[in-house]
Specification:
Layout lengths: L2 E2 L1 H6 L3 E5 L7 E2 L2 E16 L2 E6 L2 E5 L5 E17 L13 E3 L3 E3 L5 H13 L14 H23 L1 E3 L5 H13 L6 H8 L3 H12 L3 H19 L5 H7 L5 H12 L3 H8 L16
Parallel strand pairs: 1-3
Antiparallel strand pairs: 2-7, 4-5, 4-6, 4-7, 6-9, 8-10
Helix pairs in contact: 2-3, 4-5, 7-9, 7-10
Length: 289
Protein backbone atom coordinates (compact mmCIF):
# COMPACT_ATOMS: atom_id res chain seq x y z
CA UNK A 1 0.00 0.00 0.00
CA UNK A 2 1.23 3.48 -0.86
CA UNK A 3 0.97 6.13 1.86
CA UNK A 4 0.27 9.81 1.22
CA UNK A 5 2.96 11.80 3.04
CA UNK A 6 0.71 14.60 4.23
CA UNK A 7 3.22 15.88 6.80
CA UNK A 8 5.84 16.41 4.12
CA UNK A 9 3.43 18.46 2.01
CA UNK A 10 2.17 20.33 5.06
CA UNK A 11 5.70 21.53 5.85
CA UNK A 12 5.87 22.98 2.32
CA UNK A 13 9.66 23.36 2.58
CA UNK A 14 12.18 23.24 -0.25
CA UNK A 15 14.64 20.49 0.68
CA UNK A 16 17.95 19.54 -0.88
CA UNK A 17 20.72 17.44 0.65
CA UNK A 18 23.16 14.65 -0.20
CA UNK A 19 22.24 11.35 1.45
CA UNK A 20 23.87 7.92 1.47
CA UNK A 21 20.63 6.03 0.74
CA UNK A 22 17.30 6.62 -0.94
CA UNK A 23 13.89 5.99 0.65
CA UNK A 24 12.41 2.51 0.65
CA UNK A 25 8.94 3.38 1.94
CA UNK A 26 6.09 3.14 -0.58
CA UNK A 27 4.60 6.61 -0.77
CA UNK A 28 3.47 9.59 -2.83
CA UNK A 29 3.18 13.31 -2.17
CA UNK A 30 2.08 16.58 -3.74
CA UNK A 31 5.59 17.87 -4.35
CA UNK A 32 8.19 17.01 -6.96
CA UNK A 33 10.99 14.65 -5.94
CA UNK A 34 14.35 14.67 -7.71
CA UNK A 35 17.09 12.14 -7.00
CA UNK A 36 20.50 12.76 -8.59
CA UNK A 37 22.96 9.88 -8.30
CA UNK A 38 26.43 11.23 -7.62
CA UNK A 39 27.64 7.76 -6.70
CA UNK A 40 25.76 4.54 -6.00
CA UNK A 41 23.22 2.16 -7.53
CA UNK A 42 19.50 1.84 -6.85
CA UNK A 43 16.26 0.59 -8.32
CA UNK A 44 13.40 3.10 -8.63
CA UNK A 45 9.79 1.87 -8.71
CA UNK A 46 7.58 4.65 -10.13
CA UNK A 47 3.88 4.19 -10.92
CA UNK A 48 4.36 0.44 -11.31
CA UNK A 49 7.40 0.70 -13.61
CA UNK A 50 10.97 -0.25 -12.63
CA UNK A 51 14.10 1.75 -13.49
CA UNK A 52 17.79 1.28 -12.71
CA UNK A 53 19.64 4.29 -11.32
CA UNK A 54 23.39 4.79 -11.51
CA UNK A 55 25.94 7.60 -11.29
CA UNK A 56 25.24 10.60 -13.52
CA UNK A 57 21.49 9.97 -13.74
CA UNK A 58 18.59 12.02 -12.43
CA UNK A 59 15.29 10.44 -11.35
CA UNK A 60 12.32 12.83 -11.62
CA UNK A 61 9.19 11.82 -9.69
CA UNK A 62 6.21 14.09 -10.37
CA UNK A 63 3.44 15.07 -7.99
CA UNK A 64 1.20 12.16 -6.91
CA UNK A 65 3.34 9.49 -8.58
CA UNK A 66 3.56 6.39 -6.38
CA UNK A 67 7.17 5.39 -5.80
CA UNK A 68 9.83 3.73 -3.68
CA UNK A 69 13.45 2.68 -4.08
CA UNK A 70 15.71 -0.31 -3.49
CA UNK A 71 19.26 0.49 -2.48
CA UNK A 72 21.71 -1.76 -4.33
CA UNK A 73 24.63 -0.07 -2.61
CA UNK A 74 25.19 3.02 -0.52
CA UNK A 75 26.63 6.04 -2.22
CA UNK A 76 25.85 9.73 -2.61
CA UNK A 77 22.36 10.69 -3.69
CA UNK A 78 21.35 14.34 -4.00
CA UNK A 79 17.72 14.44 -2.85
CA UNK A 80 15.62 17.48 -3.77
CA UNK A 81 11.96 18.00 -2.81
CA UNK A 82 10.25 20.90 -4.57
CA UNK A 83 6.83 22.05 -3.27
CA UNK A 84 4.27 23.02 -5.91
CA UNK A 85 4.40 26.69 -4.92
CA UNK A 86 7.79 26.90 -6.64
CA UNK A 87 6.37 25.95 -10.04
CA UNK A 88 2.80 27.29 -9.94
CA UNK A 89 2.84 28.04 -13.68
CA UNK A 90 3.10 24.30 -14.39
CA UNK A 91 1.01 22.91 -11.54
CA UNK A 92 -2.14 22.14 -13.55
CA UNK A 93 -0.08 19.84 -15.76
CA UNK A 94 0.82 17.59 -12.84
CA UNK A 95 -2.72 17.20 -11.50
CA UNK A 96 -3.29 14.38 -14.00
CA UNK A 97 0.10 13.80 -15.68
CA UNK A 98 3.47 12.29 -14.75
CA UNK A 99 6.83 12.18 -16.47
CA UNK A 100 6.76 9.60 -19.25
CA UNK A 101 10.50 8.81 -19.07
CA UNK A 102 11.54 9.80 -15.53
CA UNK A 103 15.24 8.87 -15.80
CA UNK A 104 17.60 11.47 -17.28
CA UNK A 105 21.18 10.82 -18.41
CA UNK A 106 22.88 14.07 -17.44
CA UNK A 107 25.59 14.09 -20.10
CA UNK A 108 27.90 16.78 -21.46
CA UNK A 109 28.07 19.85 -19.24
CA UNK A 110 25.64 18.21 -16.76
CA UNK A 111 23.01 20.97 -16.80
CA UNK A 112 20.73 19.22 -14.29
CA UNK A 113 23.48 18.75 -11.72
CA UNK A 114 24.64 22.34 -12.22
CA UNK A 115 21.12 23.65 -11.57
CA UNK A 116 20.75 21.48 -8.46
CA UNK A 117 24.12 22.69 -7.17
CA UNK A 118 23.00 26.31 -7.53
CA UNK A 119 19.77 25.46 -5.67
CA UNK A 120 21.82 23.83 -2.92
CA UNK A 121 23.95 26.97 -2.62
CA UNK A 122 20.88 29.21 -2.40
CA UNK A 123 19.29 27.04 0.32
CA UNK A 124 22.50 27.28 2.36
CA UNK A 125 22.87 31.07 1.89
CA UNK A 126 25.65 30.84 -0.67
CA UNK A 127 25.91 32.57 -4.04
CA UNK A 128 26.06 30.70 -7.35
CA UNK A 129 29.83 30.23 -6.89
CA UNK A 130 29.37 28.61 -3.48
CA UNK A 131 30.61 31.62 -1.53
CA UNK A 132 28.77 32.60 1.70
CA UNK A 133 26.29 35.49 1.45
CA UNK A 134 25.90 37.21 4.79
CA UNK A 135 23.07 39.45 3.63
CA UNK A 136 20.83 36.93 1.83
CA UNK A 137 17.20 37.62 2.71
CA UNK A 138 14.39 35.09 2.77
CA UNK A 139 12.70 37.04 0.00
CA UNK A 140 15.77 36.70 -2.23
CA UNK A 141 16.07 33.01 -1.45
CA UNK A 142 12.42 32.34 -2.29
CA UNK A 143 12.60 34.31 -5.54
CA UNK A 144 15.72 32.50 -6.71
CA UNK A 145 14.34 29.06 -5.82
CA UNK A 146 11.12 29.85 -7.68
CA UNK A 147 13.03 30.89 -10.79
CA UNK A 148 15.37 27.90 -10.70
CA UNK A 149 12.58 25.41 -9.95
CA UNK A 150 10.45 26.69 -12.82
CA UNK A 151 13.44 26.49 -15.13
CA UNK A 152 14.25 22.93 -14.02
CA UNK A 153 10.64 21.72 -14.30
CA UNK A 154 10.40 23.17 -17.79
CA UNK A 155 13.60 21.31 -18.76
CA UNK A 156 12.19 18.07 -17.37
CA UNK A 157 8.85 18.42 -19.17
CA UNK A 158 10.65 18.89 -22.48
CA UNK A 159 13.25 16.19 -21.83
CA UNK A 160 11.13 13.49 -20.17
CA UNK A 161 7.76 14.05 -21.80
CA UNK A 162 4.40 13.54 -20.07
CA UNK A 163 1.69 10.92 -19.92
CA UNK A 164 -1.56 10.54 -18.01
CA UNK A 165 -1.14 9.06 -14.55
CA UNK A 166 -3.23 5.97 -13.76
CA UNK A 167 -1.99 4.67 -10.40
CA UNK A 168 -3.85 7.14 -8.20
CA UNK A 169 -7.66 6.82 -8.33
CA UNK A 170 -8.96 8.95 -11.20
CA UNK A 171 -11.66 10.26 -8.85
CA UNK A 172 -9.05 11.53 -6.41
CA UNK A 173 -6.83 12.94 -9.16
CA UNK A 174 -9.78 14.78 -10.71
CA UNK A 175 -10.84 16.12 -7.31
CA UNK A 176 -7.32 17.41 -6.60
CA UNK A 177 -7.25 19.06 -10.03
CA UNK A 178 -10.54 20.84 -9.33
CA UNK A 179 -9.37 21.92 -5.87
CA UNK A 180 -6.02 23.22 -7.14
CA UNK A 181 -7.76 25.21 -9.88
CA UNK A 182 -10.70 26.51 -7.81
CA UNK A 183 -9.60 26.72 -4.16
CA UNK A 184 -9.86 30.53 -4.23
CA UNK A 185 -13.62 30.20 -4.79
CA UNK A 186 -16.27 29.21 -2.26
CA UNK A 187 -15.65 25.52 -2.96
CA UNK A 188 -17.49 22.64 -1.24
CA UNK A 189 -17.50 18.86 -1.60
CA UNK A 190 -20.90 19.16 -3.29
CA UNK A 191 -19.46 21.59 -5.86
CA UNK A 192 -16.64 19.19 -6.67
CA UNK A 193 -18.99 16.23 -7.05
CA UNK A 194 -21.27 18.26 -9.32
CA UNK A 195 -18.34 19.06 -11.59
CA UNK A 196 -17.27 15.40 -11.61
CA UNK A 197 -20.73 13.83 -11.80
CA UNK A 198 -20.22 11.51 -8.84
CA UNK A 199 -21.73 10.88 -5.40
CA UNK A 200 -20.34 12.75 -2.38
CA UNK A 201 -20.10 9.57 -0.32
CA UNK A 202 -18.09 7.79 -3.02
CA UNK A 203 -15.65 10.66 -3.53
CA UNK A 204 -15.25 11.29 0.20
CA UNK A 205 -14.43 7.62 0.78
CA UNK A 206 -11.81 7.39 -1.98
CA UNK A 207 -10.28 10.77 -1.12
CA UNK A 208 -9.89 9.96 2.57
CA UNK A 209 -8.52 6.49 1.81
CA UNK A 210 -5.93 7.83 -0.65
CA UNK A 211 -4.96 11.16 0.92
CA UNK A 212 -5.59 10.38 4.60
CA UNK A 213 -7.34 13.75 4.98
CA UNK A 214 -10.87 14.91 4.23
CA UNK A 215 -11.72 16.95 1.13
CA UNK A 216 -12.47 20.06 3.20
CA UNK A 217 -9.18 19.73 5.10
CA UNK A 218 -7.31 19.47 1.82
CA UNK A 219 -9.04 22.60 0.49
CA UNK A 220 -8.15 24.60 3.61
CA UNK A 221 -4.59 23.28 3.52
CA UNK A 222 -4.24 24.34 -0.13
CA UNK A 223 -5.49 27.83 0.75
CA UNK A 224 -3.01 28.10 3.62
CA UNK A 225 -0.12 27.05 1.37
CA UNK A 226 -1.17 29.68 -1.17
CA UNK A 227 -1.34 32.30 1.58
CA UNK A 228 2.23 31.45 2.61
CA UNK A 229 3.34 31.70 -1.02
CA UNK A 230 1.76 35.14 -1.35
CA UNK A 231 3.38 36.32 1.88
CA UNK A 232 6.74 35.10 0.60
CA UNK A 233 6.54 36.63 -2.85
CA UNK A 234 4.50 39.80 -2.32
CA UNK A 235 6.01 41.80 0.56
CA UNK A 236 3.74 44.80 -0.04
CA UNK A 237 0.53 42.77 0.04
CA UNK A 238 -1.44 43.19 3.27
CA UNK A 239 -2.38 40.15 5.34
CA UNK A 240 -6.06 40.88 4.72
CA UNK A 241 -5.51 40.91 0.94
CA UNK A 242 -3.56 37.64 1.24
CA UNK A 243 -6.51 36.12 3.11
CA UNK A 244 -8.93 37.04 0.33
CA UNK A 245 -6.59 36.14 -2.53
CA UNK A 246 -5.95 32.68 -1.08
CA UNK A 247 -9.65 31.88 -0.81
CA UNK A 248 -10.40 32.29 2.90
CA UNK A 249 -13.74 33.92 3.60
CA UNK A 250 -13.35 34.64 7.32
CA UNK A 251 -10.58 35.93 9.58
CA UNK A 252 -11.16 33.18 12.10
CA UNK A 253 -10.84 30.39 9.55
CA UNK A 254 -7.73 31.96 8.03
CA UNK A 255 -5.95 32.28 11.38
CA UNK A 256 -6.93 28.80 12.55
CA UNK A 257 -5.85 26.92 9.44
CA UNK A 258 -2.70 28.96 8.85
CA UNK A 259 -1.53 28.54 12.43
CA UNK A 260 -2.35 24.83 12.36
CA UNK A 261 0.15 24.35 9.52
CA UNK A 262 2.84 26.94 10.27
CA UNK A 263 2.61 27.29 14.04
CA UNK A 264 2.26 31.07 13.88
CA UNK A 265 -0.14 33.75 12.67
CA UNK A 266 0.13 35.19 9.14
CA UNK A 267 1.51 38.46 10.49
CA UNK A 268 4.18 36.66 12.52
CA UNK A 269 5.05 34.62 9.45
CA UNK A 270 5.30 37.74 7.30
CA UNK A 271 7.46 39.57 9.82
CA UNK A 272 9.77 36.60 10.22
CA UNK A 273 10.19 36.19 6.46
CA UNK A 274 10.97 39.90 6.17
CA UNK A 275 13.61 39.61 8.87
CA UNK A 276 11.72 41.74 11.40
CA UNK A 277 10.38 39.15 13.80
CA UNK A 278 10.16 35.54 14.87
CA UNK A 279 7.71 32.85 13.88
CA UNK A 280 5.87 30.71 16.37
CA UNK A 281 4.22 31.67 19.62
CA UNK A 282 4.74 34.73 21.70
CA UNK A 283 3.54 37.22 19.09
CA UNK A 284 0.42 39.26 19.10
CA UNK A 285 -2.33 38.92 16.54
CA UNK A 286 -3.46 42.51 16.31
CA UNK A 287 -1.89 42.88 12.88
CA UNK A 288 -3.87 39.94 11.47
CA UNK A 289 -7.25 40.38 9.83
Amino acid sequence: MYIYEYDRDRNNIFYIAVETRVGVKRHFHNCMELIYVLDGDAIAHIDGETYHLSAGQLCAVSCFSTHYYENLRNGQYMVCLVPRRYFREFESIFNVNSFRDPIVDDIGDKPFLSTLRIMENIVHSRNVFGEPMQTMTERYRETQLHFLSSYLVNLLINHCGLHERHRISSLVADAVRIIENNFRDDLTTADICKKMGCYQKTLAHHFKKTMNVSIISYIERTRALEAARLLNTNPKMTVETVMLESGFKSNRSFLRHFKNIYGCTPTEYKNHRSGHGNSGGGGNDKGDP
